[in-house]
């Protein structure tokens, strides 16, 4: 499967509201995912749903994240458990001439599948290297190596994407035609997530510089652009 | 109940990992919620969990959001359904000297309760006014009024918070003591979500200015600060 194909559409992932904003294309879904570090994973434990915020990463059509409160449950569920991993970027506040037409610009993706523990020790070590290198290109090779104890203490969860949908709003005010003539201010306030100046650890050994590979995170740059570039380098090192 | 009391702690909301980052105080939970416009709500529909991104607002100890794919389900469940509403702010990327100690600075809150439809017509109209005024102080009074048709077409969901937990990481690199001596760059890259210059609707009636109340959204300002100020004005107009 390549990035120009689409995910299957079923009752689970079909977008019900404002379906003109939806896409099931792999490329559209991956574009939303790859611009993010933070996702929310929904699980059910004993009938109670949880939306757990966590860092995640994508490798092909599989999503990975660190263990969470679901880890203990998953240890007893070798077959895995249904989950939904969602990413949402807020891009703008849309102020219309009626309350009803107020909105937001956003990019979101919901991915459905079966979450399971990565139990194979080699796969787990590879995943722990990937979580560093996907965000910080080539960084794992520069670090103090992983210990056996650290690998044991880490839980990694994987979820092959079975179905997914992206939903995007990226436009101006959508007022009712009659309302445009009203003397009411309307417009869009853009929202972006940006990087600040790196704060070097005060205990850094003298003379150690910031690796060149971290230049994808420039002061004042957009986080989403940096993360997309990180994913590109991770896929084509 | 006042903001200086704590939510009850049960197996549902007790923080399991890194519990030193947790707080069950109302004030701590509200501080995370009030800095956000976007949340993720977890529901279960036919055994499948969904993490749905949506705009939300808080009034006292009750959370509100617009209807979603769960609306149809809720119409048949007068008693409501268990839900979890989560907010997470990413505040920084934490690069350590080992892969294991890489982390992120963040503020998150998970709220648990029973989601149900707001069906009383007056309560619904009040909620539709609140969703405007909570984000844009005093704005509902300036707008073209809500129509009966619009009120009918809108679904509002409410969830009194039964339990909640906030979790915050806001510090520098936490390396193992032995690792600080290694010649590896480490530090924090701050992340903030900021406002751009307002883009006025191109179809604005001549001479209409931006209302003074929108000055809480200054160009270059932080979104979280603007939203906290909006909540303060909403609570004490």
Automatic annotation (TrEMBL), chains A, B:
Under the heading Pfam families, the entry gives:
Pyridox_ox_2 (PF12900)
**Which species?**
Shinella fusca
Membrane-crossing residue ranges in chain numbering? none
What is the protein name stated in its UniProt record?
Flavin-nucleotide-binding protein
- Write down the InterPro entries for this protein, in alphabetical order: Pyridox_Oxase-rel, Split_barrel_FMN-bd
Annotated Gene3D superfamilies = Electron Transport, Fmn-binding Protein, Chain A
């Amino acid at each position: 499967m390549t990035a120009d194909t689409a995910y299957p559409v079923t009752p689970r992932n079909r977008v019900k509201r404002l379906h003109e904003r939806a896409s099931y294309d792999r490329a559209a879904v991956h574009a939303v995912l790859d611009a993010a570090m933070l996702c929310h994973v929904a699980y059910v434990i004993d009938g109670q749903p949880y939306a757990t915020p966590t860092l995640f990463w994508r490798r092909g059509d599989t999503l990975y994240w660190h263990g969470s409160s679901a880890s203990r449950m998953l240890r007893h569920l070798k077959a895995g458990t249904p989950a939904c991993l969602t990413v949402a970027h807020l891009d703008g506040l849309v102020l219309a001439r009626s309350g009803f037409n107020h909105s937001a610009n956003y990019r979101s993706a919901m991915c459905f599948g079966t979450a399971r523990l990565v139990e194979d020790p080699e796969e787990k070590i590879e995943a722990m290297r990937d979580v560093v290198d996907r965000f910080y290109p080539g960084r794992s090779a520069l670090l103090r190596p992983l210990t056996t104890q650290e690998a044991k203490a880490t839980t990694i969860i994987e979820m092959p994407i079975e179905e997914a949908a992206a939903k995007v709003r990226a436009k101006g005010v959508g007022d009712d035609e009659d309302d445009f003539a009203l003397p009411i201010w309307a417009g869009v306030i853009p929202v972006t997530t940006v990087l600040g100046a790196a704060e070097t650890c005060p205990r850094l050994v003298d003379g150690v510089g910031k690796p060149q590979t971290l230049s994808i995170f420039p002061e004042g740059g957009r986080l989403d652009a940096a993360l997309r570039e990180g994913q590109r380098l991770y896929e084509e090192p």
